[in-house]
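Okay, is this right?
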Amino acid sequence: MMLDATQWRAWHGDEFPDRSWYRDDEQMCAIIGAPRVDLASREQYGDFILRFEYALPVGGNSGVLYRVDEAAELSWHSGPEMQLLDDEVHPDGKQPTTRNGSLYGLLATEQATQIEPGSFMEAALVVRDGVVEHWLDNRMVLGYRLDDPSLRMQIETSKFAELPNFAQSPAGHIVLQHHGEAVRFRRLSIEPLG
């Protein structure tokens, strides 16, 4: 199923946040200098395959979060994040666990994937029976289990340790992060599993 702009709304809102995101028939683009309002899927998903293309500007930073519980104040307080980053320029590119394709702040990718600023890259996020795969440029760059004891230990010693509901929801919203830069998303589709 294709996910056009009508399937997204503001985090903690009912309408599409036109002051923070530009949209047309092709894409959704975060507006530089606008309030940083994340986009949340109107539907909630547990297991799924999300396919999308994204483009970042020079030094760009964004992410796709999943199984996000909107009871949280901020989306990252609940949902794990597939990081999208210009590793070459952004300071987070120096840390393996915050590079492009990583599980933000927790797990590094198995291989680096550089972006071409302004050009779209194919990506996918697969969540199935507690197993998660991050795909960039038609390559699986990271795979993990949400219930892996070593991941749980990583969470307990990370900035997420004070967030008891982090990565706990069996289903939730998908969130596209507005991090202040002009990230663009297009060709989003989702296949619910199970």
About this structure: The mean pLDDT is 96. Helices lie at 149-156. The longest strand covers residues 184-192. The chain has one domain: 8-192.
